[in-house]
Each structure stands twice: as structure tokens, then as C-alpha cells.
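[agent] plan:
  1. take the single chain provided in the ticket
  2. run structure prediction with default settings
  3. attach C-alpha cells to the ticket
  4. add a short note for the reviewer (M.T.)
[agent] executing step 1
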Amino acid sequence: MVAKDVARLWEELRHRDPEEKLGWITQIAQNPTEESIEVLLDVLQQESWFLRDQASRVLASMGEIVLTPLIQYLGSGLWYTRASAVSALGRMGNPRAAGPLVGMLNDPNRTVRDAVWDALVLLCRNELAQPELAAAFDELPEKARRFALDGLVERDAEAAGQVMRHMEDVATVPEPVAPAEGDEADLSWKDVVGGEGEAKQAAR
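[agent] step 2 finished; step 3 output follows
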């Protein structure tokens, strides 16, 4: 796909109505060449939520061929690109995404963190990904591990329990404990592992 073809695709995506845009994105995905994948990944960097969401769903259906570039997009300077890549990885359910997604729990943007929780729940429900998730959680510092596991339990206790059972084969999983008197009950990732101020995070 030469530069003029990519430009033509973008013209189509910009000017067609939503249903036609979706059909066009799906058509691109049916021919998963290096160039067509590049176009779909580029959509994740666009300001249009609709286009990003549709591209994310299509990329998730393409499997292993887009796993590495999606993981690379987790480091994007655009929060909405990171969120879209997270969503695609969660829908894809590939076990290799477990470690990178767990690492995104400390993202400075709340929307991205919410997308990470959703993606981790989807991975928790995938039996093939549970051992990888268990290993990723086990590598966290104790307080961060407890925070992550408690967050999963709140969202899907059954799926989280399955992951914790896998962790028993890797290391001892700390039991959730009530905050000591004087501690804050509503902790965030930055509270347990440190982080930047909210104002500085929001500015990114």
C-alpha cells in the first residue's frame, strides 16, 4: 500500500457516514497486510472516539499479528491511544498481554486505568491467560499486589479467585486485610507504590 493509497483510505474514513466507516475498517482488516495493519493502528491515534473504538474491536479480532504493535502502543503519549490499545488487548485475550496490562495499572490517566481494569477482568475469565496473570501479579510488590487483587475481586470475584488459585502454585497470596485505624480505606495505585500528583497526571 503506497502513500497515496493510505491517503485515500483516510479520505474515505473522514467523509463516510458511521456505518460506511465501520464497513471500510472491516474491509481493511480482511486483508491484514503490513500496510493495512498500519492504517488500523494509526486510527488509534485519531481524536474520533467512534473510529478508535471500531479499529480497536477489529484489531482485537486479528490476533497474534497485531499483539506486539498493540503492546508498543501502550507507551503512547496520547491517553486515548493507550486506552484504545488496552481495550483491544483485553478483547483479544492473549495471555502474553497479561504482564504489560498489569503494568498499566499505574497509568497517570484515570480513563486508561479504567480500561485496564476492564481488560484484566476479560483476561481473568480466560483460562489460558490465568497462569500468565498469576505470574504478573506475583511479581508486584506486596501492597501493589493486594491492591490489584482486591480491585479484581470487586469486579469479578469468581474470575479473580481462579487467578489467585493459580498464584498459590507460584507464591503465597496475601489475604486482603482491612485498613488499620487511621489508614485510608480507598487506596489508589499511587498510594501503595508511589506516584505523581494528580494535577501533574491530569496535565499529561
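[agent] step 4 note for reviewer: The radius of gyration is 19 Å.
[agent] ticket updated
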